[in-house]
Write a structure and sequence with these properties.
It is a single chain. By secondary structure, the protein is an alpha+beta fold. The chain is about 30% helix and about 20% strand. The protein contains 18 helices and 20 strands. The strands form four sheets. Strands 1, 8, 9, 10, 11, 12, 13, 14, 15, 16, 17 and 18 form a twelve-stranded mixed β-sheet that branches. α16 runs antiparallel to α17.
Length: about 550
C-alpha cells in the first residue's frame, strides 16, 4: 500500500530530505582509510547470492540506458569515481577516486585516483579511462543518447594531469551536492578508453566489456539469468564477500517474481508487488523494506505529431481529467504508488503534499477539475473531443492497467478516444524517442532528486527524456536560474514558480510516484535499503555477505 508523506518520512527518518543534503564529507579531506567500504568484521566469506530484479536489458550500454534492467545486473561489474555508501544509500564516499578537491570558486573538481586498479581483462586503470568515459557522457558521439548528459552541461575541459590525477573544469559553478551527486551516480560507470575506441563509442551490442568492479562476467542466458563471480584482483581488498552472484530477470510487480521469492528460489527480490511484500513481511526469517523510487510514472503527449496536443489548454485539460487517487487504487495490489505532480512529492523544494492536494487535478473529488478541463477543451476548439489517438503502452502490468483506466477517463471526461498499442520495453523507448505516438505511458528515471536534474532531462528543451518535444521559454529561463542558484531558499522559490508553469503548460501528464518494495531472507547481511532513495546507486553487492 502507498504511504502518505508524513508516514514515509517518519519510517525512513526523513530519507528524502537527507538525500538532498547528501551529508557530504568535506571536499579534499576524505581519505581511503576512513570512508571507503570495508568488510564487516563479522562477515562470513563465500557462497552464492541469488538476486531477482526487473526484466532482461534490451541492450548492454549502461550509459545509454534509463532502466534498472541494465544497472541492476551490470553494476556489480563496474565502479564509479565516487559512490553513495551502501550503509545508508546517501553519504558520498570514495570509489575509484580516493580523494578530491573543489576549488574555492566551485569551477574545478580534482580527483586523485587509486593506483594499482585493474580492469577484468588485466589492463591498468588510469586517468585516460576516466577522461574517455566522461567525454562520452558529457559530449556523446553522434547516434548516442545518454540521459545523464545534462548533469555535466557545464563541464568544459577534462584534463589528465598525470596517470592518477584528473581535473574537471567547469564553465560555471554548480551546487556542490549536485555535482558530487552526479559523479557518484551508479549510472556513470568507468569503462576502458580502449573499449570505447574499439566500439566507436557505442556499447549497446557489447555484452561483456571489462570493468574494474567487484564481480566479473561468467555467463548469461538471455531473459533468464546473468552469472558473475568474484574478481580476485579487485582493488578493494577483502571484497566482495560472496564468491558468486546470480541475477535473475523477472518483470517487476509480477506473480512470477513474487513466487520466486516466496518459494526460496532467490535470496533477495526487488520490485515486489504489494501482496507478495505483505506476505513476506509476515514470514519468519525475512525482512521487508520499502523506500522511494527515483522515477516518475507518466504519459506523454506528442506535440509535434498532433496539432491538438500542441495546445497547452488541451494538455492541461488532459492533466485535470486524471483521477489520480483512483489510478493509485487501480494498481494498489500490483505496485505501491503515491500522488505527486511534476517534482518528487517527497522533495523539500516541491509543493507540500497537503497544499498539492488542494489543487485541481489532485483532489479526491475530481468534479471541479473535470469541469475546468471541459472549459479548456471548448476554448481550444475541441469541445467535441478527439479521435483515434495512438496510445503506446509499455508492456509492464502497471502501465497496462493504467492505460485502460486512463483511456476510460479521457473518453468519459473529455470525449477523447484512443487506441491502445502494447509494446515491449525496448520498443517503447525506441517509439518514444522517434515520436511514433500520440500518447505514450511509461516511467522515466532521474539520476538525482535535485530539480536541476529533472528540469533538464525531463523537461529541458531537447532533453533526452522530453518525449513530448515540449518547450516553454519562461520555464527554461527559470530552470537556468535554478541551475546557477547556490542558495537553497532562493532555489526553492524558483522551483515553486517552475511548478506553476508546468501545471498550466504540461510537458507530460504525471500519474504517480513509485515506491520500492524489497524483501530478503535474513541470511543476507550488509544491506540497509529502507534509507535509500532510488535503486540506481547502491546495487553493487560488494559488501553483502551470507550467514
Amino acid at each position: 500500500m502507498s504511504l502518505d508523506r508524513r508516514t514515509f518520512l517518519k519510517r525512513t527518518g526523513g530519507a528524502g530530505a537527507a538525500f538532498i543534503a547528501s551529508r557530504l564529507p568535506v571536499p579534499g579531506t576524505v581519505s581511503a582509510q576512513d570512508m571507503t567500504v570495508r568488510p564487516d568484521p563479522a562477515a562470513k566469506r563465500g557462497g552464492t547470492l541469488r538476486y531477482a530484479v526487473h526484466n532482461a536489458p534490451a541492450h548492454f550500454d549502461v550509459h545509454q540506458s534509463g532502466t534498472v534492467a541494465n544497472i541492476g545486473p551490470q553494476s556489480p561489474m563496474y565502479d564509479t569515481l565516487l559512490r553513495r555508501s551502501p550503509k545508508d544509500g546517501q553519504t558520498i564516499i570514495p570509489d575509484l577516486a580516493q580523494r578530491w578537491e573543489i576549488s574555492p570558486d566551485g569551477k574545478k573538481y580534482t580527483f586523485h585516483l587509486r593506483k594499482g586498479v585493474k580492469f577484468h581483462d588485466g589492463a591498468d586503470f588510469t586517468a585516460d579511462d576516466v577522461k574517455a568515459t566522461y567525454e562520452r557522457i558529457a559530449r556523446p558521439p553522434k547516434g548516442v543518447v545518454i540521459p545523464r548528459t545534462p548533469l555535466f552541461a557545464t563541464v568544459g575541459d577534462i584534463v589528465v594531469v598525470d596517470p592518477h590525477t584528473i581535473e574537471f573544469r567547469l564553465t560555471e559553478a554548480r551546487p556542490k551536492a549536485y555535482m558530487l551527486g552526479a559523479f557518484a551516480s551508479g549510472w556513470n560507470i568507468i569503462v576502458r578508453k580502449k573499449t570505447l575506441e574499439e566500439n566507436q563509442g557505442n556499447l549497446r551490442q557489447v555484452m561483456n566489456y571489462p570493468g574494474t568492479g567487484p564481480f566479473k562476467h561468467v555467463s548469461r542466458k538471455d531473459k533468464e539469468i546473468w552469472i558473475m563471480e568474484r574478481f580476485p584482483d579487485y582493488w578493494n581488498k577483502g571484497l566482495p564477500l560472496v564468491d558468486k552472484l546470480e541475477i535473475y530477470h523477472f518483470l517487476p510487480f509480477t506473480p512470477e517474481l513474487g513466487a520466486s521469492f516466496l518459494s526460496g528460489r532467490v535470496d533477495y527480490a526487488r520490485l515486489l508487488d504489494p501482496v507478495t511484500w505483505r506476505r513476506a513481511k509476515e514470514m519468519p526469517g525475512v525482512t521487508a523494506a520499502n523506500f522511494n523510487q527515483s522515477v516518475i510514472q507518466a504519459f506523454w503527449t506528442n506535440m509535434q505529431k498532433n496539432k491538438a496536443l500542441a495546445d497547452p489548454r488541451v494538455r492541461r485539460a488532459i492533466h485535470l481529467a486524471m483521477d489520480r487517487p483512483t489510478l493509485i487504487e487501480v494498481v494498489k495490489d500490483t505496485a505501491p504508488m503515491q500522488v505527486g505532480g511534476f517534482v518528487y512529492p517527497f522533495h523539500p523544494m516541491s509543493t507540500p503534499r497537503a497544499e498539492l492536494e488542494k489543487k485541481l487535478g489532485y483532489q479526491k473529488d475530481v468534479k471541479p477539475a473535470v469541469q475546468e478541463a471541459r472549459k479548456l477543451m471548448a476554448a481550444a476548439g475541441y469541445a467535441q473531443g478527439l479521435r483515434n489517438l495512438d496510445f503506446v503502452v509499455r508492456d509492464i502490468p502497471t502501465f497496462k492497467l493504467w492505460a485502460v483506466a486512463i483511456q476510460a477517463m479521457l473518453k468519459e471526461h473529455l470525449n477523447i478516444e484512443s487506441n491502445l498499442r502494447v509494446v515491449q520495453t525496448s520498443v517503447w523507448f525506441d517509439e518514444a524517442q522517434a515520436g511514433n505516438f500520440d500518447l505514450a505511458i511509461s516511467a522515466i528515471v532521474s539520476t538525482l532528486m535535485d530539480p536541476s536534474d529533472i528540469f533538464s532531462a525531463w523537461y529541458g528543451k531537447d532533453g533526452p527524456q522530453n518525449y513530448s518535444r515540449w518547450t516553454n521559454a519562461p520555464f527554461h529561463d527559470i530552470a537556468n536560474q535554478v541551475d546557477r542558484e547556490l542558495d537553497d531558499n532562493k532555489r526553492r522559490a524558483l522551483v515553486r514558480k517552475a511548478e506553476d508553469i508546468l501545471e498550466n503548460d504540461p510537458p507530460l501528464i504525471p500519474v504517480a510516484y513509485e515506491q520500492i518494495y524489497d524483501a530478503y531472507y535474513n541470511r543476507v547481511h550488509g544491506q540497509n535499503p529502507s534509507t535509500y532513495f532510488g535503486i540506481y546507486d547502491v546495487v553493487r553487492w560488494d559488501q553483502v555477505w551470507l550467514g
